[in-house]
UniProtKB/TrEMBL annotation:
Location, primary (coarse class): cytoplasm
Alphabetical UniProt keywords: Cytoplasm, Magnesium, Metal-binding, Methyltransferase, Pantothenate biosynthesis, Transferase
Cofactor note text: Binds 1 Mg(2+) ion per subunit.
Binding site for 3-methyl-2-oxobutanoate: 48-49, 87, 117
Protein name stated in the entry: 3-methyl-2-oxobutanoate hydroxymethyltransferase
Assembly description: Homodecamer; pentamer of dimers.
Any one cellular-component term (Gene Ontology): cytoplasm
GO terms, molecular function: 3-methyl-2-oxobutanoate hydroxymethyltransferase activity; magnesium ion binding; methyltransferase activity
Amino acid sequence: MAEKQALNIVKMKKMKAEGVPLSMLTAYDYPSARLAEEAGVDMILVGDSLGNVVLGYDSTLPVTIDDMVYHTRAVARGAEHTFIVADLPFMTYHGSIDESLRNVRRLMQEGHAHAVKMEGGLEICGTVSTIVSAGVPVLGHIGLTPQSVNTIGGYRVQGKDARDAQRLMDEAKALEKAGAFGIVLELVTEEVAEAITRELSIPTIGIGAGRYCDGQVLVYHDVLKYASPYREKRFVKTYADVGGIIREALGEYVKDVKQRAFPAANHAFGADEGVLESLYGAAGKGARS
């Protein structure tokens, strides 16, 4: 495979202008990042969704900056030629600007991310502007913001009425003005997502936001049904049942071990002639049999 050329934020804006959709996928470790890059995805998001799908939490809230640095660094090793965005986790960019910048620095210098993602609207625009001024690209994220799930009433679709639609439009425009290079729209009604996409000069990337965003992002484990149990989601298209294949394969392994079908003779290594005699002596040469 020819060496892939990583995107940058200038190319992404050009793709929007030319109507070329952006493909984005989450990844949380070296092998998934490697496979995503080989598949040709434009961008990889190291999302704090790793809390749910990799670390076993029931939300993204327990995910720490140390978790994000660790997983981003692994992804960067696997996808050296792909643009990597890392999530700033819960409450790591809502304190002092110095603390926020320290966390951003860790994701960039230790995690080797190319950009950071931040959830929120008007309330974070000042921080976004400062981070961008420091030379760090920022991807915004509005609509359903999982870090705020306890204050927005759960995992529900956003932009269903006129007031909420206007709020989302105002937030998107404010984030663009603050310097965000793009915005994730999560669980936003298709009509509102389309309107926001038309109004902005920066790309929108949808997840559960319909057909008219400038790009799409899905979680690696959702695309591959790599979970147990797997919970179906209306906005997800699964392309393989990897979880089922893995479960079946592991079951076959257990069965083979129990029945002594594995390992077979072709999985074993032979010693040099005379080794058993040296261990047991001539009298014990046939002990193993």
